[in-house]
Amino acid sequence: MMWIRALLGLALTAAAFILAGRRLARLYRIGRRGQPADPGRTQGWSARIRAELTEVLGHRKLLAWSGPGIAHLITFWAFVVLGFTLIESYGALFDRDFHIPLIGTSAWLGFTEDLLAVATLAAVAVFAGIRRRHSPAREGRDSRFFGSHLDAAWLVLFMVFNVIWSLLLYRAAQINTGNFPYPKGAFASAALARLLRGLGYGMNSFLETAGLLVAIAVVLGFLVLVVHSKHLHIFAAPANVAFSRRPRALGALLPVYSRGIPVDFDDPGEDDRIGRGTIADFTWKGLLDFASCTECGRCQSQCPAWNTGKPLSPKLVIMGLRDHALAQAPYLLGGSTVEPTALVGDVIDPDVLWSCTTCGACVEQCPVDIEHVDHIVDMRRYQVLIESAFPAEAGVLLRNLEHAGDPWGRGARARTEWTRGLDFPVRVLDGAAVPDEVEYLFWVGCAGAFDDRGRRTSRAVAELLHTAGVEFAILGEGETCTGDPARRIGHEYLFQTLARSNVDTLNEAGVRTIVATCAHCFNTLANEYPQLGGNYDVVHHTQLLARLVETGRLTPMVPIDATVTYHDPCYLGRHNRVFSPPRELLAAVPGLRLTEPPRNRERSFCCGAGGARMWLEEKIGTRINETRVDELLGGEPDLIAAACPYCIDMLGDGLALRAHQDVVDDHVEVTDVSEILLRSVRPAEVPQDLERH
Amino acid sequence: MTEAPVSTVLVVAERAKTAVRKSTVELLTLARRLGEPVAVVCGEVDETFAQTLSRYGAATTYVVDATDAYPPVATAAAIVELAQRLPAVAVLATSGSYGKEVAARVAVGLTTVGLDTGIITDAVDVRPDPEGPVATQDVNAGTWIAESRVRRGISVITVRPNAVIPEPAPTANVVEQISADGRGEPVPRVVNRTVVTATGRPDLADAAVVVAGGRGVGSAEGFELVGRLADALGAAVGASRAATDLAWCPHELQVGQTGKTVAPQLYLATGISGAIQHRAGMQGSRTIVAINKDPKAPIFDIADFGVVGDLHSVVPALIEEIGKRTATP
């Protein structure tokens, strides 16, 4: 009997290893055909090890959603610990009374194995419940599983269930035949054994062998299923987490890399790959991203585009690219000379590509650290720089940036108009070096200089800094757009031109510390200019003002009897982790009551303006800004505070529409945190400017 | 004694529905400064069309036979052929999607046949010079004025609408057919045509007068008032994004960053606050008049004339006054 059992077990194992091995080898070969990634991927190992510990072993990102997170944590650790039972079952193939040497009969190990087996059954029940409750059939597009492979997911759950019951079955039979390693501790196996005892020794002996073979077959079948399905993440995800951008793929965008080397836009090489035009242009890390996607849909559930009826879902983008990569495998592996088709149009719809606001909600959520925004921007780069194919309205934006240095085409001369009427002079560098007594260069930004709402913020910040006795200066006509919209629409060349000119201006003036009111300028100055040799201490105005309040240089005294709700700008919060300073400022104002919208901080919902969408028409679905305004109005605020001119414009437009529709009272206004602070600090000197809403 | 050779200036003629587009007669006016204008138009034209062109100085009108060819390609091919046949010094086109495409294709085509050429886009004026036509451009949002000249060969210049006030200079009227020889290159074909419903108003992009309405107009019914004022002035109707978002008027009427860019002689903004995104589409207007009840609206920062008041009383009064003045002989 024993030799049949061993032979069957080994035959099954060999068959499964051949099937799984061939598949894995093929996937590996496809991955190796990817382009070289940027060199940063293999640097900073302490952060990478920390990520493995916290995100893979500790499930940090999965646990942000407690229910499914805990269920997944249990399943993950169960599969790690059940590795012991795998050793035991293979041992039992050859030695009926096998046990792991040294620890193999300890009650604690038996107990742990059984505990995790039972917990996994509970986790499977939780997963099944979640999948039923939130099935696309019930919730449609609102379901995070919409568009995922549902049958495969159910099959995986069923297989996990099979792994557990078959394990418990043969363990129970082992107890009844006297071949079980654990005299004590394995409570679940023991309970099942009591039920089976009545069947007699012969039957239990059969169940022991049959159960063992079924258990091995199920595990091997599961292995084959895993490498052929989205469940490949079991192997791919730990690798993907190891090679992802650290601390996260947010904030700065990477420069355009070709073959792992940044492209020199002054003299690009003949064969440089600019952006991603076909699947062959993706790096191995991109391909690993696609292989890691588990189709959980957390990204989709947070995406402002998807949630307002647009065709973009970060999950479907990644799935589409993965399916396309597998379909193009013959070309990638050199077996076919038929060039892969263009991505945009055939694989990714242009409406998908241009709907992205680069808000980063997907990247923030992804438990396996897929870099959705980078892939979308890389595909935009190819469309803009190689195909010149972009939404028509973007032409106006790009032309204005080229000719006037700002998105609206106002030109340098109007850059200081916002200072008119201030009752103190604003120091304008105009090419001169920063004087010693100046603590901060105030980066005004295009919105802060030209946009009516933005100008109010610039004036409020200038007044507050003046009141606090902070010496600051502005560049005046020397400032141009930082290049954020150009870079995020994919026009890297224009970004480089604008950024280099600004870096030259700032370096020549000897600027070291910068305060910016625009979250996008802030992000670009702080995170992207170092790529071009511009290294500055950059603070957002809410950070600086919070410090001034904390140190007593500004004292909000006049009570404001109002309810305020705070909208986290994506590029301040999620991309740069500045969550507290704006809230501290609002909390410092006497009388003000702060309410939080349902989606806040890391999960804040975009205003719709990022990724250069500020200058594009939003024609599909409902408006993102209106959706967000409705959510913010849920807290019945008198004031909606934000800390970014893009957000303030978008929310201001949304609010004006709702006021026009009589959905909300006329007194509600959208304003920058600094303006609210100013009302409490210097009430007497501002009313004429603040009456205008 | 032989006559001095007359240099020919090829003008890309465009149509507004069936009539000659206003920017085309502006081009003819400019072309006469440089030499003898010759018009090139794509597709069949009627008698009046050719007469209009000759009234503004086009001695010859070449009609490009392009039944189902893609018009910019056919027109450019015809112009390249004409430029070789006539002693052409310049090609003028309107700075718009059609004119720019033709101009770019002409410049490439001339180079292909071995002629020297160069292209200048978005000119706001053109003047003759012994060394070749000099084009004026607004640079850096009007902060600078640049004058440039094509150094060798045929100058291809696109000119913005409303650059010059059209002046008639009647001449004889010759219409000639010319077929678009694509030189064996594949010429794109037109596969479908959709007719846009006529409003009876001038085209927004090159109207001399634009009356625009914004959120302050209040309703779709209120927006009809804007249309009435436009009709009284013979103007085109524009709108801010707020008004098009509220579906008070078609989306195509949006003036601004993401809509149309206009630069009329007169821009009359009613109930428009003047947000930067709107301003980006109309800041090049010659004269801006604003009607708004909020004296602090930013539109007044750029308006040459402003009326602080409720447009629902100001505009009807204005229409009445215009009616009175146009009625008196």
Percent of residues of chain B in helical segments? 25-40%
How would you sum up the major sheet of chain B?
9 strands, mixed
- DSSP, total strands of chain B: 16
Distance between the termini of chain A: 88 Å
Number of strands of chain A: 11
Let me know the largest β-sheet of chain A: 5 strands, parallel
H-E string of chain B: EEEHEHEHEHEEEEEEHEHEHEHEH
- What spatial order of strands do you see in the largest sheet of chain B? 9-8-7-10-6-1-4-5-11
Describe the structure.
The complex is a heterodimer of chains A (693) and B (329). Chain A is mostly helical and 693 residues long. The termini of chain B are far apart. In chain B, α8 links the parallel β15 and β16. The chains are: A mainly alpha (693), B alpha/beta (329). The A-B interface holds A 393, 396-397, 400, 403-405, 407-413, 447, 450-452, 615-617, 649, 653, 656-657, 660, 691-692 and B 139-143, 215, 242, 245-246, 257-259, 261, 273-277, 279-280, 283, 294, 296, 298.
Defining key terms:
heterodimer, A: 693 residues, mainly alpha, five-stranded parallel beta sheet, B: 329 residues, alpha/beta
Q: Would you spell out the secondary-structure blueprint of this structure?
A:
The complex is a heterodimer of chains A (693) and B (329).
Chain A (H helix, E strand, L loop, with lengths): L1 H31 L12 H13 L8 H16 L1 H12 L12 H27 L2 H4 L10 H28 L9 H10 L3 H28 L5 H11 L13 E2 L2 E2 L21 H9 L5 H5 L11 H14 L1 H4 L10 H4 L3 H6 L5 H5 L6 H15 L5 H13 L22 E2 L11 E4 L1 H6 L1 H17 L3 E3 L9 H6 L2 H17 L4 E4 L2 H10 L8 E4 H10 L11 E5 L13 H9 L3 E4 L28 H10 L5 E4 L2 H16 L8 E4 H9 L5 H4 L3
Chain B lengths: L7 E5 L2 E2 L2 E2 L1 H13 L1 E7 L4 H9 L4 E6 L5 H15 L2 E7 L2 H16 L4 E11 L6 E6 L4 E6 L4 E6 L14 E6 L29 E5 L6 H14 L2 E4 L1 H5 L20 E5 L5 H7 L4 E6 L6 H4 L2 E4 L2 H17 L2
Parallel strand pairs in B: 1-4, 1-6, 4-5, 5-11, 6-10, 7-10, 12-13, 12-14, 14-15, 15-16
Antiparallel strand pairs in B: 2-3, 7-8, 8-9
Helix pairs in contact in B: 3-4, 5-9
